[in-house]
Design goal:
Elements lengths: L14 H22 L46 H6 L41 E2 L2 H8 L4 H6 L3 E9 L5 E8 L5 H10 L3 E2 L1 E3 L2 E3 L1 E9 L3
Antiparallel strand pairs: 1-4, 2-3, 2-7, 5-6
Length: 218
């Protein structure tokens, strides 16, 4: 069973009464203090420093005028010819003779045909020129360079041959080479080869053809 406290020593029973009594006493003291002591002493501060008055003047806004353009540069003086030079000048007569006969200008020179103009070689024709004896005949004319043999150089050289109407090789050009003297040997062999001339519409014409030359060590 819970123990009951003695009413004489139980403080919680008197807590509310004590709180209300304390509030009433505090309010009464506050009212008495405001009623009998309403004024408080005030301290006055004195400023001994002199006071200066500053007058502010209104400044009118001024409009900035554009600067005048600079004066023009003085002209460069040019030396006038002296009187001696003017005396040496003779003014010819400018009168025209209407009845005078004027010779006709010479005719323009006649343009002569340039016989040294480079001939035009066809690239594609109806019948392409072919080497007499075939590519085997060109291969037989090849002299394998000793430098290429020692270096083991092998490959394919492409030579462009310009063949005229008679089947003769007029000029050769190197398209792709392998070096070591093989290019020169291939061009020399093609240049010394006779071709059947190329034909266009049944007539022999100048044609350029590409010839492959094979260099292979055996």
């Amino acid at each position: 069973m819970a123990l009951k406290k003695n009413p004489k020593v139980d403080l919680k029973r008197k807590y509310r009464r004590i709180f209300e009594t304390s509030v009433i006493i505090a309010l009464a003291l506050t009212i008495i203090a405001f009623k009998y002591f309403p004024e408080f002493e005030k301290e006055t501060l004195s400023l001994d420093g002199p006071q200066e008055l500053v007058q502010v003047e209104d400044v009118e806004a001024t409009k900035q005028e554009a600067a005048p353009p600079p004066p023009p540069r003085p002209p460069i003086p040019i030396e006038a010819p002296s009187d001696e030079v003017l005396e040496d000048i003779e003014i010819m007569s400018t009168e025209l003779d209407v009845d005078a006969q004027v010779a006709a200008p010479p005719p323009p020179p006649v343009e002569e045909d340039d016989d040294d103009a480079e001939p035009v070689f066809f690239v594609a024709v109806e019948q392409q020129p072919e080497p007499i004896g075939g590519l085997e005949g060109i291969q037989k004319r090849i002299v394998y360079p000793e430098i290429a043999k020692r270096a083991g150089v092998q490959g394919r050289v492409f030579v462009k041959a310009f063949v005229d109407e008679n089947g003769n090789v007029v000029k050769v050009e190197l398209l792709k080479g392998i070096g070591a003297g093989c290019d020169e040997a291939a061009m020399e062999a093609v240049k010394n080869t006779k071709f059947t001339p190329g034909r266009q519409r049944g007539k022999p014409v100048k044609v350029q053809v590409s010839i492959p030359i094979v260099f292979r060590l055996q």
